[in-house]
Design a protein that fits this description.
This protein is of the alpha+beta class. Helix content is 36%, strand content 21%. The longest helix has 14 residues. The radius of gyration is 15 Å and the shape is globular.
Length: 137
């Protein structure tokens, strides 16, 4: 079952975020449970933000207008599922974003190294959108 997270879910969600962190390119950096809890709380309580969850998965996202238009987009901030609920979480976010007025949804494919992108493009109507880059400062 997909639902909106509440404050009582934060400890479980922090554990899931930590598991995702261990799979990420940033796994060598120290994981801060307090920072994770604060971020999760901001998606539960924040304006135009949501934290959706399944039993062992979550999707954090927001709706905001881009710098060049007043048309809002749904933007994925973090997405992880260990329970086979990844696509239902995405669909729930798409529905929430649409109800919030979004005309487009943008998601990232960091952990699967392109595997997720192939599935989203082939089966879910998504199209490539640029490339993300990072630089340590």
């Amino acid at each position: 079952m997909i639902r909106h997270a509440n404050i009582g879910d934060i400890p479980h969600l922090v554990t899931l975020v930590e598991r995702e962190h261990m799979l990420s390119p940033w796994r060598g950096e120290v994981f801060d449970r307090g920072a994770a809890a604060s971020s999760i709380r901001s998606f539960i309580e924040g304006f135009n933000r949501t934290m959706l969850m399944s039993e062992h998965g979550y999707f954090a996202g927001l709706v905001q207008s881009m710098t060049f238009s007043h048309v809002p987009w749904g933007i994925e901030f973090a997405w992880y599922a260990e329970d086979g609920q990844g696509f239902p979480l995405l669909q729930a976010f798409e529905g929430w974003a649409q109800r919030m007025g979004a005309k487009r949804v943008v998601v990232n494919d960091i952990i699967s190294h392109g595997g997720l992108s192939k599935v989203l493009t082939a089966k879910h109507g998504y199209a490539p959108l640029g490339t993300s880059l990072q630089k340590d400062l």
